[in-house]
Write a structure and sequence with these properties.
Helices cover 40% and strands 21% of the residues. It starts with a helix and ends with a strand. It folds into 2 domains: 98 residues, Serine-tRNA synthetase, tRNA binding domain (Helix Hairpins, Orthogonal Bundle); 305 residues, BirA Bifunctional Protein, domain 2. The protein contains 12 helices and 18 strands. It is α+β, with helices and mostly antiparallel strands. The chain has an 8-stranded mixed sheet with strand order 1-11-12-13-16-10-9-4. Strands 5-7-6 form a 3-stranded antiparallel sheet. Strands 8-14-15 form a 3-stranded mixed sheet.
Length: 423
């Protein structure tokens, strides 16, 4: 959500920033509608003031034994006009909120401009690309040959874009999540939470998934929605609240199932586990002081990188351009892991600084000792990591010619000492 006062005072800058994201100018439309709302608000307040004044005059006239019929008729008329004026103010206010709710966050000044992923900038690479003496197989073929990755069973149960993992691969998925959570909680300063996967509409509005991306989500027949990421629940813990700045930054993490309809991905990654309707993810969320958020963004991204390094998985860090950023983000780093079967890097983590954009939608504020006024917090979120995609990367990078898969050293403890997965 955007600050109306800032838009009024910086209309050109607002439109220029939107243009960098490929969006048409919006400032004048917002300003014009806001002017109508403020005029309606003034009319409502004037009518209320006149009613109160006339009511006092009626009391004085009656006390003095004078005729107050004209004023009483005016008050009666005002009582009919006031509700209509109030309704008009509320209608225009709701219209402004609807307009603002679908305008994306403004990009940070150092975000490169570009129309799509081709404008992204690679910042670093880590790890050596593995060399195989055989043609590397894709994760779904590896899992099928092991007899531990069953897509046909999942189709029978749920349809396309689901999977059933068995035996050592089911344990590997669990091990990866435990490994990630242990790092975040024991070394990286995050507090682990267990949160719901069903949320109310307001929570998804607060983090920016609604109303614009309703088609990407799953909704129950009741009033609940399935979360696309634990960002929704973790971030909304500070919604409609004022936190003490002494507790900032708040660093929160959770492992949850995530659910996405993949409405816009028809024909993309139709085989395997790359793009599924249900998957596991360990999420990182930071609630930060505005002065800390840039540093916190770097710290969060570095945490996700550390996990990949400990697993020995080659990756690169990408700074997303204006045309490839998420709706709520003002700056995003993507981490992409190497997948031998595709001979390229694929996204495994996305770490975003949302500034005060989500906080305004959620009404999440902070107040320092001695401060008279509150300020909006900054919110950040990142994958630490997407568990399913990490499992894919392990299978492909650690595959052997006989079809077995070496377990990364960092996971031996979590796998009960198992070092190689065989059929």
């Amino acid at each position: 959500m955007h600050d109306l006062k800032w838009i009024r005072e910086n209309a050109a800058a607002f439109d220029q920033a939107l243009a960098r994201r490929g969006f048409p100018a919006q400032a004048q439309s917002v300003i014009d509608l806001d002017a109508k709302r403020r005029a309606a608000q003034t009319k409502f307040q004037d009518l209320q003031s006149r009613r109160n004044e006339a009511s006092k005059q009626i009391g004085i006239l009656k006390k003095d034994g004078q005729n107050a019929d004209a004023l009483m008729a005016e008050v009666a008329l005002l009582k009919d006009q006031i509700p209509a004026a109030e309704d008009e103010e509320k209608r225009l206010g709701a219209e402004i909120e609807t307009m603002l709710s679908v305008i994306p966050n403004l990009p940070a000044p150092d975000v490169p401009e570009g129309p799509d992923e081709n404008g992204n900038v690679e910042l670093k690479r880590w790890g050596d690309i593995p060399k195989f003496a055989f043609a590397p197989l894709s994760h779904d073929v590896i899992g099928g040959k092991l007899g531990m990755m069953d897509f046909e069973a999942a189709v029978k149960l749920s349809g396309a874009r689901f999977v059933v993992l068995k035996g050592a691969l089911a344990r590997l998925e669990r091990a990866l999540a435990q490994f990630m959570l242990d790092f975040h909680t024991l070394e990286n300063g995050y507090t682990e939470l267990a949160t719901p996967v069903l949320v109310k509409e307001e929570a998804l509005y607060g983090t920016g998934q609604l109303p614009k991306f309703a088609d990407d989500l799953f909704r129950t027949t009741g009033s609940h929605w399935l979360i696309p990421t634990a960002e929704v629940t973790l971030t909304n813990l500070v919604a409609d609240s004022i936190v003490d700045d002494a507790v900032l930054p708040m660093r929160l993490t959770a492992q949850t199932a995530c659910f996405r309809s993949e409405a816009g991905s028809a024909g993309r990654d139709t085989s395997g586990m790359i793009r599924q309707h249900q998957f596991q993810k360990v999420e990182m969320v930071s609630i930060a002081h505005p002065d800390q958020s840039a540093e916190e963004h770097e710290r969060m991204t570095r945490g996700a990188e550390t996990l990949l390094e400990r697993l020995g998985l080659p990756y690169r860090r990408i700074l997303l351009c204006t045309g490839d950023m998420g709706f709520s983000s003002n700056k995003t780093y993507d981490l992409e892991v190497w997948l031998p079967s595709q001979d390229r890097y694929r996204e495994i983590s996305s770490c975003s600084n949302c500034g005060e954009f989500q906080a305004r939608r959620m009404k999440a504020r902070f107040k320092g000792a001695g401060d008279k006024n509150t300020r909006f917090v900054h919110t950040l979120n990142g994958s630490g990591l997407a568990v399913g995609r990490t499992l894919i990367a392990v299978l492909e990078n650690y595959q052997q010619v006989d079809g077995s898969v070496v377990v990364p050293t960092a996971l031996h403890h979590y796998m009960g000492g198992l070092t190689v997965i065989r059929s």
